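User: I'm new to structure prediction. If I give you an amino acid sequence, what do you actually give back? Let's try with this one:
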Amino acid sequence: MATLLLLIIYLAFISLGLPDSILGAAWPVMQPDLNVPIEMAGLLFMTIAGGTIVSSLVSGRLLKRFGTGKVAAVSTLMTALALSGFFFAPSIVWLFVCAVPLGLGAGAIDAGLNDYVATHYHAHHMSWLHSFWGVGATLGPVIMAQFIIGDPAWRNGYLMIAGIQFVLVLVLFLTLPLWGKVKTKPFAEKASETVEKKLDSVRPLRIKGVKLALAAFFFYCGVEALVGLWGASFLVNMKDLPAATAAQWVSLYYAGITAGRFISGFVTFRLNNKTMIRSGQAIALAGALLLVLPLPLYFSLGGFILVGLGLAPIFPSMLHETPARFGREHSQTIMGYQMAVAYTGSTFLPPLFGLIAAQSTIGLFPVVVVLFVAAMLLSSEWLNKLLHSLRTQREKVSA
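Assistant: Good question. You get back a string of structure tokens that encode the predicted 3D arrangement of the chain. For your 399 residues, that looks like this:
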């Protein structure tokens, strides 16, 4: 039963990844068809992200009241209806209207499923879960491409992906009884038992270490989105690569993240979450330094791949560590905060760098990547030191 539900959650994460990458793929044909300025894509993206941030912040209360299964099913229905709205939308105004429920639904699903896997399954499942998101994010443009090659029917592409979402909605509603029958993994209960007794009456944001964890999520998603958005521009303008070649190099960065998460699922059998996070950050920092140093061109390719491989285990491992760090009592709410801050980082840090680059040079790109990775590493290590200190104090008191 637990295995069946896990398969459904994996399918849900593929479905979650599908809409995340199709706006950029479809925009070259959407923009002239809708007769709007090219920058409207950025505003649409920010509208979707805004809805995601809002729903992530309130997801803790929704999950406590209705349960993960119901929230996931209703949220997926919202995304399916929103994607259908993209098919019917007669103007850009209606696309903005549909972008709101698309973001709201995505944020609630993301926070709910991450918390459920963190509290009910082992660490390798969290890594594989986010690898399946990568599968969905990769398939989205592939599906859209089938509808815009030769015939710019981007609306049909959205309708196809909406149809996939509606199938998942049906599956989720049919399997609602399964969600309450999976037992919590024993080691998570033991890890958080002491924490929960101390923190039952404490507001989540006042728990020591939560703000440091949020900072790590902020910079992680900031650097992940930054490399994806500006990497090709850096290669074209500073390394004199053709645009098509630069795009292929950046695709290898995403391939590194997806493959790295699949591989890290097996590595978690030997290494704990803290070691996975620290190792990933060190690899990402090494890759970023390859981009900074004045080395031959192909070292830059190696840098992009290393950054992707390094980032791969960090996000799922930080999510999976949440109940052990802060207790199961608060994990749903804190998970929502973490997802909201993560989306905030990916929404605002890349455009902020774009403004800086416009006033100076895109050559600052690798330096900013190093700074963001270093800030994430510093936040994470500071958090580890704080949690170790608190654990030592509790052990002295109990002794």
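You can read the tokens as a compact description of the fold. Here is one thing that stands out. The first helix runs from residue 2 to 17.
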